[in-house]
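Hi L.,

You mentioned the student needs an example of a multi-chain input paired with its predicted structure. This one should do, with 741 residues in total across all chains.
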Amino acid sequence: MDFTFTEDQLLFCESVKDFLQGEVTAESIRKSWDTDTGRSSALWAQMVELGLTSMLVPEAQGGLGMNELDFVLLAQECGRYALPEPLVETVLVATPLLASLADNDPRCASLLEKIAAGEVMIAVGHAANNLVCDAHVADYLLLPKGDQVHLVAKDQVVLVAQQSVDPSRRLFSVEWQGNDETCLASGAEGVSLLAATLNRGALGAAAQMVGLAEQMVAMSVQYTTDRLQFGKPIGVNQALKHHMANCAVKTEFAKAPLYRAAYTVTQDPARADFAVSHAKVVAGEAALLAAKNSIQSFGAMGYTWECDLHIWMKRSWALDKFWGHAGFHKNRLHQWLLNPNAKIGAEMTFGEQV
Amino acid sequence: MDLSYTPEQIAFRKEVRTWLEDNIPAEPLQSFDTEEGFNQHREWEKTLAKGNWGMVTWPKEYGGRGCDLVEWLIFEEEYYKAKAPLRVNQNGIFLLGPTLMEYGTPEQKERFITQMASGEEMWAQGWSEPGAGSDMAAIRSKAIRDGDEYVINGQKVWSTRAVFADWVFCIFRTDPDSERHKGLSFVFVPLDAPGVTVRPIPQLDGLPGFAEIFFDDVRVPVSNRLGGEGEGWSIAMATAGFERGLMLRSPARFQETAKRLVSLYREHANDIMDLSIENAVVKCFMDAEAYALSTYQTASRLIKGGTIGSESSVNKIFWSELDQLMHETAMSILASRAELLPSSPAAGDVGDWLDGFMFAQSGPIYAGTNEIQRNIIAERLLGMPRK
Ligand SMILES: Cc1cc2nc3c(=O)[nH]c(=O)nc-3n(C[C@H](O)[C@H](O)[C@H](O)COP(=O)(O)OP(=O)(O)OC[C@H]3O[C@@H](n4cnc5c(N)ncnc54)[C@H](O)[C@@H]3O)c2cc1C
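Structure written out for the whole complex:
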């Protein structure tokens, strides 16, 4: 029993954090809003260079062969810096789905090599999401149809752009026709792949929301220290202190469920639905509370386009509803817990181990 | 990260389970806030001590087993699962014990830890005063040096189980001219010493769970002081860290309550009209689980040499508010029977939810109120301005 990350995992996370801090700023994010795609191929190339896109690509396809647990802290940092690029979706969602299919389908193996090398981008659709993120910059799309998973080239689909409250998010509805050729999996296999995909998507969203929450609190602490009213920093007032302390408590207690979910996805998939839903619900609550208490701390300034807070706030609003909204995930928790055969109790925290 | 138990840990769990099955009193004990119940619980502490189960994390020479914190968590899980009696000496074993290990002289450890571990000596905590609650630095009771002794005068209040305990660990002002955090010392006083008067204060349930303690020229040897003279505040803060942090409220306690809440909900699901109750039940369960996960995380970190600081304030808020929500939810499920004492003929399956509900009201007050904890989090963990 050891509920800590390894030195290597922590060090790698620190180096990625340094990288993101240097490259992804509120200013660079605002600039990207005015570009056509909203995405920077230069930044993507740097991330490829750092090996980020190859982390979960199996070694057989030239990747690092790591797992979701190795990436979860990085996903948290992607949230903290509100990274617009689809790194989390590429690493946590597209890559493992292709890896599950690579043994049977050479197309998938080849795409994995290209993901590692930064030569292709893949967007993933799922019934839990009405829309597909970043389909405009993708070369291929992985799309569900009933119990089937299809791989469709970008020129075989029609994309209709939709506008999100978060200018960094680029969402599309996709019109497409699959055929036998594009179908990678179906039946029980398809169902289980789609279920695992949902869990990984939700895990990635949860991790980002923990990072978003912490960053909003950090911004509010700074602002309430600098802003004076009644001749004192507004942060001396207990009402604001308690707003922030409440966020800290919520965020802190979202972390252990998040890391347990990441571990469970890699080690104990039979328990993943429940663990992921727990993480997604509490991370969403933490991010939404941080957004609400932060805008309150900023006053009218927080209600402006000029103030950077909205970059983080809007991402939180969106991710809380993506890869399964709270209602979906709470429902899974209810079904799991209220089932008369549920194995629950203090000694069952990590499942039945005898 | 490896969230599976080792074969040794699994074997340890079995050993705990078997011992508890063989030794737990067949009849539930009376409340430890009555004299008879207190003595029953004292006997149980002695039984635990005989099996070396009193404090598994303590070194063997003090009657412990030298267990690490993960084994301690396993012990606690089995303990609450088995519905073993509450720990009457918790002020001693969970608060003073760890403080003594850190700050005690070899003689003090030998003298006090051994007796505490064997269940012979029960401890109370004497910090609060009528004028010093949240503002503990306002303590006025004095212990003035006279040769090898301190002469103590003053008053403590809200001292839990002091009515029946043997000793009290106090904070007194040893420098009469000092102010606030300076000039305080950590001193042990036997509750049967001449000049000590203990007056019971009934709690919400009518039982004398609190006491007021008056000190009238009470003399104790200087060797009853823990740490240096004037170091009382910093030692007390370490004790408070244990209180809020890890030891006092292990997650298993809340997980077992959450489990009972799920059963209560299942039994009454068909009569429940308030649709928000099901959500509350699930939230309680998940929060108890999150507290357990987080504690395992902290335990793993501490085992690897990490430390715990203001995070203990985050913990304290979380477990105390969880405990409130769990009991509020149970009250909602019991609906019109919620007010009934278990002795009432129409009580049915109310069990001890009402007792738990009342006690849960005190969680956000004791061990430093939750308002004070939120101040600590904002100022020390997050760095918000004090002035
Ligand atoms: C069940 C129980 C057991 C206890 N056992 C012991 C024991 O064994 N030994 C012992 O020494 N003490 C014990 N206590 C006492 C406990 O430590 C105090 O109750 C606690 O420190 C609060 O002090 P107070 O009750 O005087 O409340 P006060 O300090 O008067 O506070 C009353 C209210 O005002 C709020 N408040 C006060 N100051 C501030 C501030 N600066 N900012 C915001 N809000 C503030 C508080 O949060 C609280 O809500 C126990 C208490 C309880 C309830």
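You could point out the following to them. Chain A touches chain B through 54 residues (CB under 8 Å). The two ends of chain A are 14 Å apart (CA to CA).

Best wishes,
N.
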